[in-house]
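== Fold encoding ==
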Amino acid sequence: MAEKPAQNPGTTSTSTSTSASNGGKTIDECQDMIRRSLRTPMVKFLLEHLEKSGCAIGERFIKAVHCNKQIAGGYVRGEGIQVCSNHMNIQDEVNQVVIHELIHAYDDCRGANLDWANCAHHACSEIRAGHLSGDCHYKRELLRGFVKIRGHEQECVRRRVMKSVIANPYCSEAAAKDAMEAVWDICYNDTKPFDRAP
């Protein structure tokens, strides 16, 4: 998120839409879209597993905000999930941000000593969120202009992990790449709370 304090870098979802130029949605419109998102099966599943892990969330945990940076949203420990209304155009975009950030919230809940300032910890959660959320589904990649038949999903996850971890004030590009490579196998194959990658 653009307004994250330096001591708690949290996570960000990069915006893949061109909505910044046309203003996206108002905060109220986006908040309505978030409410609709809460009724989708994947979001309900993640909320249920957050609760089972002892991290039930309140009504205002996911909120629409106006963002100055070109990001779709973010998760910040102790604050919750923010969805950048001015970068959202359609319901699917909001659903994706909510799902991605709920995976970060789940990781934060189950990892008692997760440190968002640690590049490897941050990279691991980004790998999981990118892989499990559907951010890198073939159709989404096509819409972004990335056309590759084989290996598109892992390539997409790697690209998006790098973008997010580099945005962490504690991680240089080299540190982000080293961290991602070091944790890739274990984090990519960690599909909790799903039985397998959805």
